[in-house]
Every structure is written in C-alpha cells, then in structure tokens.
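Quick one - first record:
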Amino acid sequence: MPLPLFLLTKLRAFESVARHGSFKRAAEELHVTQSALSHHVRHLETELGMPLVLRSHRRIELTAEGRQLCADCAQGFQGLEAAIDRLRRAARPDTLTLSVAPYFSARWLTPRLGRLWARHPRLHLQLHHAYQPADFLRDPVDAGIGWGDGRWPGVEARLVVPGTLAPVCSPALLATLPRKPRPRDLRGRRLFHEFDAAHWSAWFATAGVEAGPLDTTRIDDSHALRRTALDGHGFALFFTALVREDLDAGLLVAPFAHTVDPGSAYYLVRPADRAPSAALQSFTQWLMGEVTSAPFA
C-alpha cells in the first residue's frame, strides 16, 4: 500500500524532532515553525493511535514506540538520500562536489586549481565551504577536506597537510624583541591562539621554557588570527604549513623553529561505504601529487 504523502511529511518532521531531541533545533533544520512541527507530530500520533513523544517543560523523551519508529525512519530516509545521490552522481560523472574548510581553500587549494584543470579539463568541481567536517549522511557532497584528528566514524581519511603550529608575528613586532630572541622572550607578550590556550603551554614546554600561567586570547577563525598577526597586535600560534607565502613575502616572520602538534590536521575524507567516482579518483591523485611536490602554502 503506497504511503500517503501527508504521512511522509509527518514522519520527516517526527524523525528530525527525535534525532535532535528538540522541537527548536528540528524547526531550524526543516525551516518551519515549532508550532507546525508540534502539529505534525501530534497528527502522526493520532494517525498511529499511540504516543511517540513525552513532552516536558525543558526536554522531550521518546516512548518505546517512538524510539523504534525513529530508528526505522532514519534508516529509510538515509536509504532514499543514498539512492538520490547515486542517481545524481551517475548523471554527472565528471562532477565532484567537495566540502572544504574555508581557510585551507583560500590559502592552499584554490590557488592551485589551474593545475588541476590543466590535467583534468573536463572535471567540474563544486566547492562547498564549511567549518565542520563533511556529514555524508546529510550534506550532498562526494568528499571533503577538513580539520580534525582524522578518526571520524564511517569515513576513509588521508592526511593532506599536518597541523603543526608555531608563533608568527609582524616584522615590526619582532624588532621589539632582543636582537637574538629566545622563546622565553615571549613571556608577558600578547599571545593569540585559535583552538586551545594549552597549545601555547605545550609550545613553551617544547622550547624548554617554564612559562607559568599564561594570559592568551582566542580568535576562533584562521583569517582573523592571521590578520591579527599581520597588524602587529601580538604573536599568533599559527599553521606552519599555511604561512609559507606570508613568510616568503616578508609579511610575517617565524622567530623560532620550535613547533607544537595540536593533534589535528587537514584530511581528505570520503564515505568508507561508497566507491569513489572517477572524478574523485582523478582529484585525489592530483591532490596527493600536490602534497608531495608542494606541501606548503
């Protein structure tokens, strides 16, 4: 018996509410009001003749029937999405949709695209910029280049650029240090980081310096952190692999050879349960060639 369209809409609403555990977040995902979602779920409960959601003032819980239906709905919608994705990719075999971290894209990937198209002129590349790693169950992408530890469930990850960090600053700020600066000279200076203040402590330890308590400022965007260093506001703990162009141009300087590994890096990722398309294989081959011949930017 065909599933009525009105019931499919209500199931989609219920699955989102159940997955998020929140009417608010589900409404944001589906771009509808919370009131509309609540009506869909209540109508579904009436249609099925049983409660699915236990509502309280602060949170919601699923009944046993709700938990079972949620799991079945998730499996069904994932199957539909996978089928649509297969048809879309089969219709456009030369198209590759790539999720990519914005700073990596701007500094490393996009300046090299001319070489990609010179080798693969028929490859139609679409870049989707995102700060979070690709979610292959939700995002219509074939692969991604993202920042993380490389241990994401259900994906195959290949290292692209290591995540080592080192202090960088403007030439003018460097001139305020002793002529032969030492790592301990940064104690008491204004320090910036993107991810975790503990990375500064780890860097001082690597340099053999007992830094003590540190007062550092977090700037959680690579573009803004780089700009802060360029403008001479302080010393930024920054990617060694993505600052070479600024160093070569004399815009920034790296006073010390000591680095710290934050435990993360940039990885190329793809779904482990999905065979790579010809377009993705061509891109991967080109990308890893670039990593070998010119790893820094």
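second record:
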Amino acid sequence: MLFLLVCFPNVFLLLKVSSANISINGTRGEPLFWPCYHTFSEPFQPNNSLIYWQGCRKPHILLHAYVYGKEEFQHQNRSFKNRTTIFPDQLPSRNFSLIIEPLMLQDDQIDIEVIFRSQIKSTNRFCQTTVYVAAPFQEPKIEINRKEKTATCNTKGGFPEPEIKWSSGDRGTNLKPHKPSTVIFEEDGTFSVSSTVSIIGLQNVACEVYNPTSNQTLTATKEVSVPPPGNKSHQCPQPTEEPSTSERAGGEAADSAFNMPEDHEPKETVSLEENSQLTKL
C-alpha cells in the first residue's frame, strides 16, 4: 500500500492510493484531484514513454496525454480543453495524478484510467476510477396550505437527484409523502424537487434534503398548528330560556330594593297609645 502527500493552499491531504477500482467525489465548479501513483520494476524513461489519461468505456475519451517527453493536446477531448493538469516533473517518481478544473456536471460517473506504454514494457492500465459530481442544493423552504392541510418542501439548484424525508418534530416519527415528489430536470443540468405531506393533527414538521454524492443534508422546520379533524375550535353559545312575567316582575322589585338611594331612611312609626297622649296635651 502506498501513500501520496498532496498539497493545496492551506490544505494537506495524505491519500492512500492503490491500483484497485475506486471512486472519488467532487463538487461542480471546484477542482478535482485524481490521485494515481504506480510503480514499475524498470526506471522511467520519458522519451520512450506514452501516457494517456482517458475514459475506460468506448469510445475512449482522452483527458490528457504525455507523448515522448512532453504533453500533447492535439487529440485531447474538446470537453476537457484547458481543464486538466498533470505533474510532469513527478512522473519519474511514478506520480500519475491528474487535476480536473473546474469540475462539471457532465463529468459525473465518468470511468477513467491511466494507460502507460513504453518500448521496454508492454501496455499497463491502472488507477481505474469513477468520478461522481455533486452540486449543493439551496436551503429548502416549507410552505403551509391551511386550506388543504398540507406542507410542501421545495429546493433546487442541486445535483444529483436528492432524497427527501419528512418527520414530525413533536412526535419524532417519519411521515409518508402526500403524493410522489415532483422532480424537474432543469436546462443547466440541476434538479428542482417538491414534496408534500399532510399536516393534520401535527404541531410542526421537518423536511430533510439529502445529497447522496456529497453526503450533505439540509433541514427545514415549520410550525403548523392545525387542529385534528373533528375538533371544533369555535363553539356557538347555548341559547338561554326567556324568563316568565312573574320572574321579571320579581326581579325588577328586587332590583329596585337594591337600588334605593343612600340618603333614603325609613320613616319612624308612632303607636296608638303615644298618639292619644299627644292629643290630650
């Protein structure tokens, strides 16, 4: 097993490299470093060597070429023009790595390998690799339709097609989409995705957008607070019985008694005996 030290600005990577089939992931618009390190028993002779970085499948796409001591671009595939870089000074130390910059969506799932030919040794094929390209999705947004009692999660601008999962934040359970997701393949090669779930009986929902190539997950949450079916949030007041005439009269009398003015005092009464004595006087 071999190790290759790769240096970029502010980044140092120690890569474990082998000649077995591997896969590498990259991001659209950024450089992709394809590590390849292979050893031979005989010394490297650049003036007697042919090296091709090309696609494994037919028709073979030529990414880069090194012919008898110098780089050759005449037969390079048009889609890789001015996008590939090798390390000529490190070829004697068997560093056959390649940089693709910028990485494009059209590079996704391309199978590439190195072909080495020399006058001394027969053709060698090594570093078979599959390239996977990702583009980050925009932050998902959740829209609530209270009339239909549904929530819709929308995102766009990413690649490849994402996986969308719904969950209930208050219950912590997964939710089944209301209907199959709507997936649109845009003109620029990216995807726009929309997914809908029912929110009946839920307090809040969460939508997760997972990119299988970049292994990135974006999450959006939303409070919904939709009452469950059959739950009446507003109730009409119960009608009251009309009081009878006697009850109304009694009530009015009671009210008049309680509403007596504060300065009103009951008059003093005089007995018959006291009245007769006052008459004699």
